[in-house]
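Lab notebook: predicted structure, single chain.

Context: the supervisor wants predicted structures on file for every construct in the current expression panel, including those that have not yet been purified. This is the next one on the list. No modifications to the sequence; it matches the entry in the shared construct table.
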Amino acid sequence: MKKITLLFLSLFFVLGTSFAQNADSKWAIGLGPGVYHNNQKAEFGFAHEFYISRYLSPSFDLRLNSNGGYESGGIDFQDVYLNLRYKLFNGYMFSETAKVQPYLFGGGGMMWDNQANGFAWNAGLGLNFRLVQILLCL
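Prediction complete. Output recorded below exactly as produced.
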């Protein structure tokens, strides 16, 4: 069982950055693990992220993003957002092929949290780390 878990986690980290996006390859798929904090319960939990992204221009991408959080009692939250992503300093300090690319994002979507649901806004600052780059021609 430990070997299967190790293999799954290795694939999770490597394949999560396998499909890169640029002007030649307009679509990207990503996934990754994370940690979140539940302020109400004062507990940390494990999280996941999955997204499908469409290149619009050198500075903008449109991204359908899903996040979820898991705690000891099961699923804590799940959300789906449609975000517009703005790549910072594009062309000055960073390029489409840079190993690290900072960005701002924002949008709206649905959130399911502790048996309740509703419309929610999403915004933030992120860093895109390109560890492995395989171009997906779509």
